[in-house]
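Form 12-C: Joint structure prediction
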Amino acid sequence: MVISKSQSKEQALNSVAGESVNDFEEQPINAPALSLGGWARWIWRQLTSMRTALLLLLLLAAAAVPGSIFPQRSADPNGVVQYFDNNPTVAPILDSIQLFDVYTSAWFSAIYILLFISLIGCVVPRTGVHAKALRSAPPAAPKLFSRMPASLQAKLPAALAKAVPEAAAALLKKQGYRVVRDGKDVSAERGYLRETGNLVFHFSLIGVLIAVGWGGGLSYSGQRVLVEGETFVNNLASYDSFSPGTFFSEDYLVPFAVKLDKFEVDFDFTNVTNVGTPLDFRAYVAAKVPASDGVDAQEKTGVIRVNEPLELPGSHVYLTGNGYAPSITIRDQDGNITYSGATPFLPQSSTYTSLGVIKVPDAAEQFGIIAFFYPTVDELESGALTSLYPAPIDPLLTMNVYVGDLGLESGAPKNVYALDTSEMTQVAGGKSGVKGLRLALGETADLPGELGTVTFDGLKRFASLDVSYNPGGIWVLIFALLSLAGVTTSLLVPRRRVWVRQTASGFEVAALARGDDPMLEKVVADVAAALTSEDFVSNNTKGK
Amino acid sequence: MTPITLASTLLTEVGIDLNPELAGLARLLIQASMIFYTGAFLSFAFHLSRLSSMDKSARQNASKLERVGIALLIGAAVIHAAGVVLRGVSASRVPWANMYEFAITGSLVVVVIFLFALIIKDIRLIATFVAGFNLLILGTADTVFWVNVKSLMPALQSYWLVIHVLVAVLATAFFNIAAALSIAYVFKTAKWVQNAKGKATASFKRILDLFADAEKLERLAYRFNIIGFILWSFTLIAGAIWAERAWHRYWGWDTKEVWTFIIWTIYAGYLHANATRGWTGKRSAWLSIIGFLAILFNFTIVNMYFKGLHVYSGL
Ligand code: HEM
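Section 2 - Result
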């Protein structure tokens, strides 16, 4: 038996006589006649063309770049403030073209909205076409098999050749093809899942976008610094900062209370290359949820870790930061307490050198303190202090004291972590002529002038907690996984058509794939081999 | 309460085991593998230059050189793998938590995938590229990215580190091989190569003639890229799930998230290009190369110089 192989590299399949063997090839779009409706249709076809989709995708990729170069208000608001400070002339210009809000900017939105309109315009009609294809028979065999990307001719005696169509139909059916016989021709098609996967993928992207938008609108996230022993209640007043979505309403806040019982940190103490590296942060919390609409009253204790939020009705509580909160008491000259409490100090380094601010508005003369806390203090040769280790092995507080207007009366919200010293006079530390104060744990020192005394009573830790709610998250995930399944199916399931024709001298086989198909030639060869195999020959000669 | 009693209540003894000596040995193995990579690179390069020679007998002897190259590459991969495993053992965790470790693990995955892909005959000729690229990556890792073993910061202590990063590394390896094929494609179809007149370009052209025909290169690149794209999509989703756990939102346009998105979008564009008239061939090959350049940019420049939450370069 002789098999002669012929393969055509020609991919311009639309030209195959009289039939559209590849429905997926794009048709060129011609400029319209000059009617209004014609133009509208033309614009719509342009917008929903593959070329436009491609250009919009590339444009979207390019448009996302500046957001990684310039600080963004959403991800790094302090960075934006800093950028304005450092580049006072350029920053406003950049701001006017929304370079600090790239992902909500008009131009970024325009690109992805156009892309999704194009997507809908493209996918909806394709769904119709595909639904029809799912119900229709594979297309008739082409006139010239040799013009298909893979084809073979095989010689068989006429008696055997007669058995080819039936055997080929059975063979292809067994391999999962949809098969029709038409006289001497057999047409077969498989891999409808490829297009189904592609459509599921594109539709799921729309799902992702909607879920992101809808969920983002209803979402909120609030940040709160909580010292050990403190409790906060889930309402707007108790947050240090709060960012609501567009459709947020205060009613969404389930009024649960969370108490930070204890905060623990493990620092590596034993491995030389790793000393002082944090190994674990644990916030031990107790939550009380009162009964409310659809929520049962409950009490819950738990440990929040960096990757393990506490799940409460309607929101999750995350651990986003931590630090020390030295307990400090300030007394005036008569021994009356003018300030008392554990004040969160913000860590400035990996060894937890921390900066804190104390404001004493109720003293006879208003004053403020800028303090540094060193958990394990060490003095450098220059005389400057530093912390050697992040745990409090040898803790020390240093203080610079300022007297004057704290500016608290103006009513404007004040950052509790910063002291505006522009209206104040430094009376201890720096160039004031009086040495800054230094206190070890348990020590009391005299404040300069008639301000009284300050005591470093004890040390607590604080946790920065973030309470977040986003009902869209789960839907984003579902659609994202659907789209992943869709794209995987679409890219890996081959869609191909196989034709077999009985000829005078034997038979021909040809195959055509949609998209890339590494197995196309092998499929053709295998079909030909099966139809010339000894099994085939013996099966079809016995009865004769 | 005295400071010391306070300290002892706040300090907890925790047992993680870091072994710097073993990490040193791991580094030595990686350096040794670089010697093998150099050998493999030179063999493959000589092999190519022999093949391009006009002298027939020189061409016939060439396949020996190729076999030597492949043997050296296998040797390099084995030693490289031992180094990566030891690095993991010395840190008591997966060896992909900082740039040094990404680089050594990622390049190992590239060479392993490549060695398996050798079953596909047409891929042989990019061996020079693979050996050279790994040499470059390991050289950079050893000189610029090296850090001693460290424990994981709490945000990285998650099984998502194993899944998300491993899949990202795998995706990168597939994109890498695809990009090599696309580079070969671009050279092969370049006008200035095809019209080569000068002696140097002529022999360059002869080397390129050895590669599979352009269409085959394009299709091979496509096959590696689709696997890369599926893996990258998974990386993106897994990253979002992890971000929801660790940073209280699944997506926040952090610089690293931005670049993951950009890369994903470029490759989506690439896949579209392959189905768009006028965009197959050279343009899609360029998109495949640009996509991989974006990955390299993301790994180096973004990790080292851009500000963001993903501060794990270890540098
Ligand atoms: C958000 C925007 C889009 C993304 C991220 C995207 C992504 C993709 C990806 C990854 C593929 C390859 C996998 C597959 O075949 O399923 C693909 C294929 C495809 N896309 Fe899109 N797409 C988008 C928009 C569009 C639009 C607007 C159109 C129509 C103009 C379109 C039409 C197609 C077609 C026809 C294919 C099949 C190509 C083939 O046969 O290989 N897509 N798309």
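Section 3 - Comments
Chain A touches chain B through 79 residues (CB under 8 Å). The pocket of protoporphyrin IX containing FE is lined by residues A 24, 48-50, 53, 57, 115, 118-119, 122, 198, 201-202, 205, 487, 490-491, 515; B 268, 271-272, 275 (CB under 6 Å).
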